Amino acid sequence: MLDEQARATMLAPTEEDIRRIVRSELDRAAKQEAAAGKAAFIASKGTLDWAYPPLILATAAAASGIESSVFFTFYGLNIIHKDFERLLKVTPLGNPAMPMPVTMPNFVLGLPGMGPLATKMMKSKFTAKHVAGIGELLDTAKELEVRLIACEMTVDVFGYAHEDFIDGVEFGGAAAFLAEARHAHVTLFI
Amino acid sequence: MPDTQINADEVLDARLLSCPMPVVKTAKAIKALAPGQVLKLMATDRGSIADIPAWAGSTGNTLLEWHEEGDTLVFYVRKEGA
Q: Which superfamily, per CATH, for A39-189?
């Protein structure tokens, strides 16, 4: 038998009742479905433009209460290298989607100095639009306890040492990523 | 201007910041509040119009109201839960 208060709640739930019910349902769902609270990203590209998506998604996920990790492999290792400011570049050559102030044919884009120019252009554009720099995003990721995992195999192949990477980076292999990914609803290869 | 005046316990100025920083700073500011307290967020990133409600939905906090004041988007978020 329902008591007086429970009956009143069923007949005319107040906003507070609804909130309480929704919250308890959400808690229950979260407990049953641990995967809903995890995201696992792979960062495989080592250019300035492609350094942004994994870091933006991982920090936004962590800020949304989603436990997140980024596995850096192949050229993606550039992003967590201590020298990322110098290593991360962008080139308009072979990238017809990159907006340029004037249309330029490929043979011009291939001239010496075009890469550094494009990198400088992108950085100043991002700064003008107040987009966080890679360093700030990395600091934010660490602050939000995003796990940053460097692929040990590619670290070896490229001749890097563990000390070449920023503090807080862990090292692991495919199994380390998969151990995270199998419990995650959000998995992206970038 | 809003119809009702909501009293904020804390104000976060995230104007000029781009994605994902308004959400990141909001999460941090909300963490410092007690349940029931209200955060006033000011942002200029237009993506926040979609992002702040989505963030509130994922974290179980309540977006009480939002409106525009010129170029500034003003959000009132109430911290929920224990």
A: DsrEFH-like (3.40.1260.10)
